[in-house]
C-alpha cells in the first residue's frame, strides 16, 4: 500500500495518462525540500514555492539551528570527503546483494581473489572488509536498493539483477548509473502473465485492463510496445500474481529462465505467460561520475574478472509488437469485482502479520480453513454465506480497499498512515483497532549523536556545512517525506529502502524512519529512537462509503465482533 518502499496510486490520488490511456501514478508531491529521492518510478517533486527540485533552497528554521549549535558548543570544521578512511585516502564502496544471489556470488568472488570476509557464511552483519584489500568496503543491500545507491554516488560499484537496473534506467536514463557487464549467475525473466486461455489480443481489447507489478517502469514500457491501448499499472509490494483474476486482469512478474519451471510456478496461481518483457542475469554496475574521476582498480579489477554471462540475455530483449488497437476483437470476460457485487470480500495478511491476525480472528469467533493452520491458501474457505476471503500483502491492503477490491481488510495502522500520507483523500479509513502487534514508529539515529531532540541532531549534522542535505531512509517513503516537512528539516533526501534498515545509519543516512517493538534490535545496532511518530497496532480498514445491502450488514457484524474481541486484549 502507499508509502514504504514507494507511494501507491489509488482512487484518492491524481490520475494522469502515461503510455496507455490511463497510468496509475502518485498524486502527492513533496514540499519544502530540495529534492525527495523516491523510487525511480515516482515523479521528482518541485521544491518549495514551486522552485525546480535542483535549485538550492534556504534551510528552514535557521535561527533555531544556530541557537542549538550554540547550546551544544558546536564548531564548524572542514568536512571529510565521503568514503574517507583514517590515515588518508578514500575507500572504494561496493554494494552486494543479499537473498538468492548471495551464496553463488560469494563463491565466484572468492575464486576471483575478492574474498569478502563473512559474506559467504550468511552473516547478519551489513558491512564487510575484503581480504587483502584495505581500500575496499562491502555493504549488503536488497537487490532493488543497489541501483539507487550507486546512482546517488553513495556506492561506487554494485552487483544486482539486471531487471532492477533497467527499472531505474527506464524512468531516469540519464542517471549516473552504468551497467558494465553481465555475470554468469542469477538469470531471471520478467513476463506478462494472465489467466489461462487469455491471449495478448484479448488483453489489448479489454477496456481499462489492470496490470499488477513490482516493476512499474518496465511494465509501462512493455505495455506501450505491445500496443495495449487502455491500461492501468498497479504497483504492489510483492506477489503481483496474487491479484488476477479477481482484482486484476494480468501481472508482470519475475520468473525463472527455465520455461518449464516458470510455467509450473505460474500454473499454481492459474496463470500462463502471454509475452516476455525482459530477461537478464546479475550485472556489474558503476557510478558513471566515480568511474571517470577515481581509480577503482583495487575493486574493479577482480570484479571484471568474474565469469561473464550472455550479453544478449543480459540486455532488455526487443518485445514482439502488438497489432494496434485490436478493434473488434473480443476482450476478457472480466472477473473483477465492482462496487455493486453481491459477495462480501475480506482481505487477510500473509507473512509476519499472520499470527497476530489469527489471534484477532479467534477472539472474534472467526476461523477460516486454510489460514493459520500450518499452511496458507490464497483463498481460505469461509463458513459464512456470502463471504469470500483472499490473502495478500498487508502493505497493499489500503490501496486494494481504495480501489474497491475489498470491503474489509486486516492490516497495520502504519501502512494505513503511510497510504494516507501519500493520498490524503483516498477513500479508506480505520474501522476498529485490533490492539495487537503493538510497536512504535519513529525517527532513529545513531546512539552517539550528542542530541536529545531532532532539532539538536540536525544542528550537529550541519555544524560543518549549514546547507548539507539530511538523508532520511525508510520503507515508509510517504511518511518519511511527511515527517521531514513537518519537522522542518530544510534540505533533505528521502531514500527508499527494502529491508536491512538498521544498516543504513550512520554511513548511508542520518535518520531512519523505522518501527521497534522492544528496542532490542536498535540497541544491538547502537541506535536509538529520538522522536516517536506514532504507535502502530493491527487494525480493520474499509471504505469511507458503507457498502449497500447485505454487504453493509455483514460489515457491521464483522467489525462489531472484531471490536469485541479486541476489548479483551
**Sheet of most strands:** 6 strands, mixed
* Number of DSSP E strands: 23
Radius of gyration: 24 Å
Query: Which architecture name of the largest domain does CATH use?
Result: 3-Layer(aba) Sandwich
Uncertain regions: pLDDT < 50 for 5+ in a row? 1-81, 321-328
- Count every helix, treating DSSP H or I runs of 4 or more residues as helices: 17
CATH topology of the largest domain: D-Maltodextrin-Binding Protein, domain 2
As a percent range, the share of helical residues equals 25-40%
Structural class: alpha/beta
The overall number of domains is: 3
State the distance separating the first and last CA atoms: 27 Å
Strand line-up across the major sheet = 4-5-3-6-13-7
Written description of the protein model:
A six-stranded mixed sheet has the order 4-5-3-6-13-7, sandwiched between helices. The chain has a five-stranded mixed sheet with strand order 10-9-11-8-12. The chain is built from 17 helices and 23 strands. The chain has 569 residues and is of the alpha/beta class. It has helices spanning 62-72, 102-111, 146-151, 162-171, 200-204, 216-225, 259-267, 288-293, 297-304, 311-314, 354-363, 397-402, 413-422, 454-461, 477-486, 520-524, 549-566; strands spanning 16-18, 20-23, 92-97, 127-130, 133-141, 157-161, 177-182, 188-195, 209-213, 231-235, 250-256, 271-280, 282-287, 344-349, 387-392, 408-412, 428-433, 439-446, 470-474, 492-496, 511-516, 527-536, 538-543. The chain folds into three domains: 1-8 and 25-75 and 438-536, 3-Layer(aba) Sandwich (D-Maltodextrin-Binding Protein, domain 2), CATH 3.40.190.10; 92-186 and 283-314, Periplasmic binding protein-like II (D-Maltodextrin-Binding Protein, domain 2, 3-Layer(aba) Sandwich), CATH 3.40.190.10; 344-434 and 538-566, D-Maltodextrin-Binding Protein, domain 2 (3-Layer(aba) Sandwich). Strand 1 and strand 2 form a beta hairpin. Helix content is 26%, strand content 25%.
